[in-house]
Amino acid sequence: MASLPPLTESLVPFLDPYLPQINRTVSLDKAETDENPPFITLTFAQSIDSRISSSPGVRTSISHLETKTMTHYLRSKHDALLVGIGTFLADDPKLNCRFRVNHNGMDHLIRPVIIDPTFKLGSFYEGSKLRQVSLDSKGLPPIVVVKLSKIRSNPEIESFCIQHDIVLLPLEGELASKFQWIEVFKELKKRSIRSIMVEGGASVINSLLSSRDSRSGQPLIDSLIVTISPIFLGKSGVEVSPCKELRLSDVSWWTGVQDSVICSHLN
Q1: Mean pLDDT on 137-142
Q2: What sequence ranges are listed for the domain Bacterial bifunctional deaminase-reductase C-terminal (predicted)?
Q3: Which of 20, 120, 121, 123 has fewest C-beta within 10 Å?
């Protein structure tokens, strides 16, 4: 695969206030403790009409190479990269980081996390790009979040994961295909994951945009970074739109060769 073009220098100071920083000064309610979830960055590329693909299950190229490099730069700033099983099945993504974080030529090894309540991954993993990059030492095997009841009813899931070095994270879902996000994030933090970059797909994005901590009422998302490309994908496209009105705060805009990027926090 061709190497990424260099990162546009102006993106570094633009993105920095919205990225996790280990030595950052935090308020008491966001202090790093075992009881608090990791830093969550939600990021995706969309069309002008708020679509992230041309139709369900179809991989769609949206962003310019310039902002593709930005995506890998963002990955280099996080411990884990989270997607839903639908995105994995539709895109066959590598879920690794190709941004060179230092001068020794080493890539940052980010941990893939796949939300997969019924373990659909098993039928596709062996021939996937994700497995191949792990075998080539260019990426890590994933953590897969699966319903505890599914694991109990199918012991082969555990043996498959052991065979492929997959980390199995069993959780009880509140509904047939959903987990409590706060529980997912807290369990990931127990596995030394302090920052998570969430990339999709639409159901994951829409769900997280509307999610709040039940104790504090605060959004679970720490930063929102959206690339907007000058394209309409039409009414048959897969839409990103939360179920109710959502206003952003601390908004910053950046415009590149083709795309615009908005960074913000949630009110």
Answers
A1: 94
A2: 38-259
A3: 123
| φ and ψ of 45, to 5 deg | -110, 140
The contacts of residue 119 (CB under 8 Å, 6+ apart) are 144, 146, 150, 151, 154, 157
Task: Give the pLDDT of residue 105.
Answer: 60
CATH number of 35-266: 3.40.430.10
- Residue ranges covered by each domain of the chain: 35-266
pLDDT at 28: 38
CB 243 within 8 A of CB 206: yes
Task: Count the neighbouring beta carbons within 10 Å of the beta carbon of residue 30.
Answer: 13
Strand partners, 101: none
Which long-range contacts does 182-187 make (Cβ < 8 Å, 24+ apart)? 182/37, 182/211, 182/213, 182/214, 182/220, 184/115, 184/145, 185/37, 185/38, 185/40, 185/220, 186/35, 186/37
Give the side-chain half-sphere CA count within 13 A for 63.
20
Q: Is the peptide bond before 201 cis (omega within 30 degrees of 0)?
A: yes
Q: Is 87 left (phi over 0), alpha (psi -120 to 50) or beta?
A: alpha
Give the separation between CA 226 and CA 67, rounded to whole angstroms.
Answer: 10
Distance of CA 251 to the CA centre of its chain: 21
Sign of the CA dihedral with 43 first, then 48, 51, and 54 last: negative
Pick from 224, 198, 182: which is nearest to 37 by CA? 182
Q: What tens digit of pLDDT does each residue of 59-117 get?
A: 888 999 999 999 999 999 999 999 999 999 999 999 999 997 765 666 789 999 999 99
Q: List b or e across 71-93, with b for residues whose CB sees 16 or more CB atoms inside 10 angstroms.
A: bbbbbbbbbbbbbbbbbbbbbeb
Supply 50's token pair: 């708020």
